[in-house]
Amino acid sequence: MPYTFYNSTVPVFQSALQSLAQILKKAHSHAAENNIPADDLLSWRLADDMLPLAFQIHEVGDTSMKLVSRVQGTDPLPWSWEDIKTWEDARARISEAESLLAGVDEGLFEKRADETVPFVTGKGTRETVARGWVAIYGLPTLFFHLTTAYGILRNKGVGLGKPDYHLAFTSPWVADRPTSG
């Protein structure tokens, strides 16, 4: 696989969504085993002044969606974290984001890598080139919220380990490679 703008972004975002899905699958099992309504997990937080798990799930999906919209030049979908009220809503958000990434036009994505794209900050709308958006906003935001979701669940006793987070990222690269020895 050549190292291109597309190959260095879209598969990473896809892996993040797969990682989140794996983490949430284990969280759902934890809830069932401990007689906790799964929807209650969506309100869990690391600290009182932090946003809940539902927000973290939203941000991983929303950042993935915005990667597609920003780079392909379409309007972002009007997603809100407050729309994630149930476990099914959370799964649906991940599925929607996965579908958007699967539908990316690789040629258009490559063509627009150095074109200007808008993004919203606390200080209003700014502009940067698409690959700049990925570097300064997309990847940091994606990993912050994926890691925070993991941390929330781990802190609440869900039996998660590094492989639950990491395997989705390593599998595409090492699964088919022969081992030495």
In short, what is this structure?
InterPro entries: DinB/YfiT-like, DUF1993. The chain is 60% helix and 7% strand. It has 181 residues and is mainly alpha-helical.
CATH architecture term: Up-down Bundle
Give the integer mean of the pLDDT values.
91
Query: Which regions are unreliable across 5 or more consecutive residues at pLDDT < 50?
Result: none
**Beta-strand percentage?**
5-15%
User: What fold name goes in the CATH topology slot?
Assistant: Four Helix Bundle (Hemerythrin (Met), subunit A)
What value does the Rg take, in angstroms?
17 Å
How many structural domains does the protein architecture include? 1
What string gives the helices and strands in order? HHHHHEEHH
Morphology call = globular
CATH superfamily: dinb family like domain
Structural class: mainly alpha
* Count of helix runs: 7
| Largest sheet, spatial ordering of strands | 1-2
Can you summarize the main beta sheet?
2 strands, antiparallel
State the share of residues found in helices, binned by percent.
55-70%
The number of distinct β-strands equals: 2
First and last CA, distance: 25 Å
Any idea of the CATH class? Mainly Alpha
InterPro entries: DinB/YfiT-like (IPR034660), DUF1993 (IPR018531)
Organism: Cephalotrichum gorgonifer
Pfam families: DUF1993
Protein name: DUF1993 domain-containing protein
